[in-house]
Every structure is written in C-alpha cells, then in structure tokens.
Amino acid sequence: MSVPAPSPAPRGAAPPGQPRKAATAAWIGSALEYYDFFIYGSAAALIFPDVFFDESDPATATLLSLATFGVAYAARPVGAFFLGHVGDRAGRKKIMVFTLVLMGVSTFLIGCLPTRDQVGTLAPVLLVLCRILQGISAAGEQASANSMTLEHAPPHKRGFFTSFTLSGTQGGQLIATLVFLPVAALPEDQLLAWGWRLPFWLSVVVAVVGYVIRRKLDETPAFEQQAATEGVAKMPLAVLARDHWADVLRVVAGALVASVSTIFTVWALAYATSDSVGMSRTAMLWVGALANVVALGAIPLWAMLSDRIGRRPVYLVGAVGSAVAMFLYLWAISTGSYALTFLLGIVAFGVVYSAANGVWPAFYGEMFSTRVRLSGVAIGTQIGFAVAGFAVTFAAQIAGPDGDDWFAVALFTAALCVPPVVAALSARETHRVPTEQLGGPDDREAARAETVTA
C-alpha cells in the first residue's frame, strides 16, 4: 500500500520549523551585535576617558569618549542605504551573515588597540575607525533580522516572532553587563592596563555560534516568491522614495524613542558614578542587568498583546510612559538611593520602555512591502538611531559644567519621545493585514476586512 505524499505547503508559506529557526537566528545575532555595541557603551562611560583621552581634563575626556559612542550612530545611516539596497535585491540571509562577521571582527579589534600612552592621538583615531565599522554592521543587523522573522512568521503572530530581535538586543545588553561586572571590580591599575580588553575579545565566541546558525537558515518564502513572480526591485531606494516616503519619515520619527535606551545605558551610568552622586559602578551595572532580565520577559508579552489589540496602542504606552519614567529614574539617581534607583530603573527600562521596544520591529516592518522592507526599516531606523546615539553627547552638554542637571536631561529625553508619539498616531494599524498585502495600496481595506471577520 502506497503512502500518499504530504500536501505541499501553501505558496509563500514558511516550511515547518522555519519561523522558530528565524527567530532564534535573529535573537542570537542581535544578542551578539548589541553585546558588542553595549560593552562599548559601558567602556565609553567608565574606561575609555582614562585609556584613550587626556586624563588631565576628566570632563572633556568623558565628553569625547561619549562622542565616540555616537560616531557609530552617525555611520549607521550610510550603512543602511548600502545594506538595505543589497538586502532587498540579494536577500535577507546574506545581510544577516555579513553584519554578524563585521561586528565580531571590529569588536575584537577594539580589544587589541594601543592606548593613548602608547601611540598618542593615533589611539582615539583607531578607536573611531573601529566604532564606524560597528555602526555599519548594526545598520543592517536589526532590519535584516526583522525582515527575516516577519516574513517567516505566521500572519497573526508577527508581533511575537519579530520581538525576538529586540529580546536578543536586551539579551546582548544583559550579557555585556554581566561580563563587565567582574571586569569593573578589578583593581584600577589592572582594569585600565588589560582588564577592559577581555569583554571585547570574548565576542568572538558568540560570533562563531551565530555564524553557524545563520548559515543554515533558509531565505524567506515572501522574498523568494517576490523574486520568482514580480522580481526584485532593481533600485529599491527609488521605489522607497516614490511609494513609501511618508512611512520612512514615520520610522525616522519613531526611532527617536531609542534615545531612552542610550540615555539610560550610557549617560545615566556616567552620571550615577560621577563625583556629584558617587554611586558604585558595580551597583549601577546591576541596575542595567536586572532591568534587562525583566525586559526579556516583558518584550514578548507586549508583542503578543500587540498581536491581539494592535501595534499602535502598545507602542504609545511605551513612548509616553518612557517620557514620564525617565524623570523618575534620574531623580532616583540624584537622591543617591540604591533602592529607588533599582526599583525605578527596572520599571522604566525593563517594563515601560519594553512596550515600544518590543513592538516596533513588527510595527515598522509592516509599513513596507517585501520589495523594499529591508531598505525602509534600515534607513528609517538608522537615521532616527543616529540622533539617539548623539543624544548621549547632547545630554552631557545639557547637564551643565558639573554634569549634574538631571532634570534638563530628563526633559530633553521626554522631548525626543514626542515625535514617536506623533508617528504612531499618524500610522495605520496593520496587525491584521495579511503578510503578502503589507505595504500595498489595499492594505487599509485588508485591515478593515480582517477586523470585520475576526
């Protein structure tokens, strides 16, 4: 008796198991990318002013060190234009592998750099060059991972599956913090001599694991169907400018909400451990670690809620709530109270900010069609993230000569949350639109029809 062949998967559907594989690949890759990115942020706040800049002027050294953190954000829009173009023409998988390798190499090289005492002003120049490579890598990482998971995901679980990209981001920050805890506890002379290099060298391990996983991942069915039927866009940027310019502007505005993350992880860390407050470096690193542990659980929960009630309401909770929560968190630091700082740090970053952070991968990706999704998300987010990256430098200036005007910094951060709110209010709700109709001229009608039949 012959056994009937299994029915083929519907056209454009992901093979069984691929959504989970895509989510896992996105998580691990993002964890590496943002492990690398945020060990740099921690080092820029705590170590690099003494290692790469003039120690005779601590305030200026800290400002310059934080500015190098922002340099990568300036490089990200440039990388987004190039990597977005290639990803929409050649596929998501190629970009995911390339960005992983580039980030791993550039981060390892930072750990090998000579110091200012060894080579003078060449040291910060080399540091900036490596930081630019990190920025180019990050420009394509999240957009390619978002596109990969969204296009593999079941239609009514896109929020949940795409949230793994941002869960990976939080996981990377957590790993970076946990690695820095024993390093920061080293005696000062050992920390500045060699200890700070260890976290940068350890990135190689995660890079190898992520490379193996991503090499085995299938290209998305949506991209393959697009290539086989209508074909890929020869000039994705031209299509993007013609048909999706308003959505690109929305993503740029929405991406400014990332300022909350950079202020929390970099400026607040520098402020809390400064002479004006005097909190322990180790304790403040634990605030970030615990907040990220909470975020790992909160992000998928917020994302699943957005699959039920929509992207916009959940995103708005995160954007508006973060504007308020930043005042409370920085106030807690100013009091020198460890209990308040831990509590409000976890609430602000682990819970409230996670609402916007967990939903935006689906929210932004669903604004674009398959032909230009990677370009649209990459360019829009990286322009907005560039502003967010330099928010740390602006915050250091706004905080005054003593670096202790926390209220001005909180007000500045809240102001940067206004454009994301406007962007969300002006965007269409897409959580019920079928994947193949996203970004098309009839996605509004599809959303209405899905709502009626749901």
From TrEMBL:
Keyword Cell membrane among UniProt keywords: yes
First-listed, main subcellular location of the protein, grouped into a coarse class: membrane
Assigned keywords, A-Z: Cell membrane, Membrane, Transmembrane, Transmembrane helix, Transport
Domain Major facilitator superfamily (MFS) profile: 22-432
Keyword Cell membrane belongs to the record: yes
Subcellular location: Cell membrane
Pfam entry (one): Sugar_tr
Region: Disordered, residue numbers: 433-454
Membrane-crossing residue ranges in chain numbering: 63-83, 95-116, 122-139, 160-185, 191-213, 248-271, 283-302, 314-332, 338-364, 376-400, 406-427
UniProt membrane topology term: Multi-pass membrane protein
Protein name per its UniProtKB record: MHS family MFS transporter
Organism: Streptomyces olivaceus
